Amino acid sequence: MLWGLFLWCNMEIIRSKNFKSEKAWGAKDIATMNGVTSRLHWTDEPYIWHINDGEEIFAVMDGRVEMKYRENGKEDSVILNAGDIFYASVGTEHVAHPIGEARILVIEKEGSIQMELNANFEKIAVVRPEDYKWVPSPMKGVERMMLDRIGDEVARATTIVKFAPNSEFSPHDHCGGEEFLVLEGVFSDEHADYPAGSYVRNPIGTFHTPKIGEEGATIFVKLYQFEEEDQKQFSINTNEAEWYPGLVPGLSVMPLHEYGTEHAALVKWAPNTIFKPHQHWGGEEIFVLEGTFYDEHGEYPKGTWIRSPHLSRHHPYTKEDGALIYVKTGHLPIKE
């Protein structure tokens, strides 16, 4: 019988050891009782750091799990064996790492997850390729590498999304706007095909249905980060657009978009280019597309994402391999 499950009228017996979902953290919904959900999860991959706005009971039914959690800015962990229970109070930041396969019973308030990843905009955040942890999306063939996120499926988010060949995503509107840069392959929807190098802006209220072809696609995407009045919908093929001289020799700039204090551009750095030290009013966000980007704080190879807060400073430069970066400034929260 499927999952060893027996049904008699309104009674249900579940053999948790026999349950296995098609993807990590897939779940069987057991019951929702007065707004509290009970779900059996199977996984062989870590979840991501998140915070619940309600209490959570996390019971290991089978296997072993390393539960990592943060208290007062300090990270700690505990090994949970079958039969062990982890209780997370409201606001507890935690992430589960299974050791092999694990089956977990999670009891929590319906819709309680408030995922917070690199959510403190007053701190520098850096994610390098060696930090990547791909997690499946709700749609088959679509994986995500989350860079920052506030919320669950509907979230203010910056993400690298990888679409398998011939995959699809459900029709959806952009309640908070969508901005993306195609990194690899061809991204397609009912409006157009966007090859690698395409920059696309879909403002609040727009709608589309992504449908990917045989090449697959990888995009760098930002969601729920539009001003309501910023309503210009457009795309730019950066393989064909014009470059302009930068502020110092060796620097070339391709403007992508500006609205209010927000500016987005591609910046091409010739080898051994040095820019002047400067401060970021409204913050700065960089994604390294080619080469290696440097400043006094570190080295950032291709695929690195850097977010620097309001009034942060740095002195950027390149070495022998130069760099191509996506950069956005003036868009982060300013604490009054």
Would you kindly provide a written description of the structure presented here, covering whatever features stand out?
- The protein has 336 residues and is mostly beta strands.
- Helix content is 0%, strand content 54%.
- The chain folds into 3 domains: 2-112, Jelly Rolls; 125-237, Jelly Rolls, CATH 2.60.120; 244-329, Jelly Rolls.
- The protein has strands at 6-8, 11-13, 26-33, 36-43, 50-52, 56-71, 74-80, 85-88, 93-109, 113-114, 116-117, 125-127, 135-136, 142-151, 155-163, 172-173, 178-188, 193-195, 198-202, 207-208, 217-223, 234-237, 244-245, 251-259, 262-269, 278-280, 284-295, 298-301, 305-308, 312-314, 323-329.
- It is globular and about 70 Å long.
- The termini are far apart.
Radius of gyration, taken over Cα atoms and rounded to an integer in Å: 22 Å
Structural classification = mainly beta
Strand count, sense and barrel status of the largest sheet are: 9 strands, antiparallel
As for the number of domains, it is: 3
Name given to the CATH architecture of the largest domain: Sandwich
In oligomeric terms, what are we looking at? Answer: single chain
CATH first level of the largest domain: Mainly Beta
Name of the CATH homologous superfamily of the largest domain: Jelly Rolls
Enumerate how many helices there are, as a single number.
0
Parts with pLDDT < 50 across at least 5 consecutive residues = 1-8
Form type: globular
Fraction in beta strands = over 45%
Give the strand tally.
31
- Mean pLDDT, to the nearest integer, reads 91
CATH fold annotation of the largest domain = Jelly Rolls
Question: Could you estimate the helical fraction of the residues in percent?
Answer: under 10%
Distance between the termini: 60 Å
